[in-house]
From TrEMBL:
Similarity field: Belongs to the acyl coenzyme A hydrolase family.
Residue stretches making up the HotDog ACOT-type domain: 9-119
CDD domains, per database record: BFIT_BACH
Coiled-coil zones: none
Name of the protein described by the UniProt record: Acyl-CoA thioesterase
Secretion signal, residue range per the UniProt entry: none
The UniProt record lists the keyword Hydrolase: yes
An MF annotation (GO) of this entry: long-chain fatty acyl-CoA hydrolase activity
Alphabetical UniProt keywords: Hydrolase
Length: 139
């Protein structure tokens, strides 16, 4: 269980990244833009798995709170959890932390994805709660 901003979430830290030279800013620490790109992709994959639809778009991201930085050679991990299922949308909470020290690098309270059809219009996803791959893929 992770304690973040008065919330307690069971985050799934699925994806790890090894901070490499091409990920750094001119100060020699992890470039925020690289991290946000990784988070957006990870959150999209999480959403696709939860909603069972590969056509989803990022709608909204709340305040991003960079708490600490990462440096060359650090291993970081990204944690996500769905905090709300709307009619066509899903809201996620995100935390990124140093895998070794567990120090929090950033938190994002709300990332909203919208489920869309082939014409890019929002469509209901019909989901109301988190599912797990062991249940989703069982025959
Ligand atoms: C996503 C998009 C299709 C939604 O269109 P829209 O006209 O806002 O649709 P709606 O008003 O019906 O809202 C759709 C859902 O988003 C939610 N939403 C809309 N604006 C929001 C906001 N600012 N913050 C949080 N949620 C929001 C709505 O509450 C609704 O959720 P619900 O059905 O679960 O209640 C449209 O805004 C779009 O194409 N945006 C560009 C997406 C994009 O290119 N992203 C970057 C690349 S992935």
């Amino acid at each position: 269980m992770e304690e973040v901003k008065n919330h307690t979430y069971n985050l799934n830290f699925h994806t790890r990244k090894w901070v490499k030279p091409e990920d750094l800013n001119p100060n020699g620490t992890l470039f925020g833009g690289s991290l946000l790109k990784w988070i957006d992709e990870e959150a999209a994959i999480y959403t696709i798995c939860q909603l069972g639809n590969s056509k989803v778009v990022t709608k909204y991201m709340s305040e991003i709170n960079f708490l600490s930085s990462a440096k060359l050679g650090d291993i970081i991990e990204m944690g996500l959890i769905a905090t709300n299922f709307g009619r066509t949308s899903i809201t996620l909470f995100c935390e990124v932390r140093n895998k070794i020290t567990r120090q929090s690098i950033l938190t994002i309270n709300k990332i909203v994805f919208v489920n869309i059809d082939e014409n890019f219009n929002p469509i209901p996803h019909g989901k109301t709660e988190i599912t797990y791959s062991r249940d989703r893929f069982k025959s």
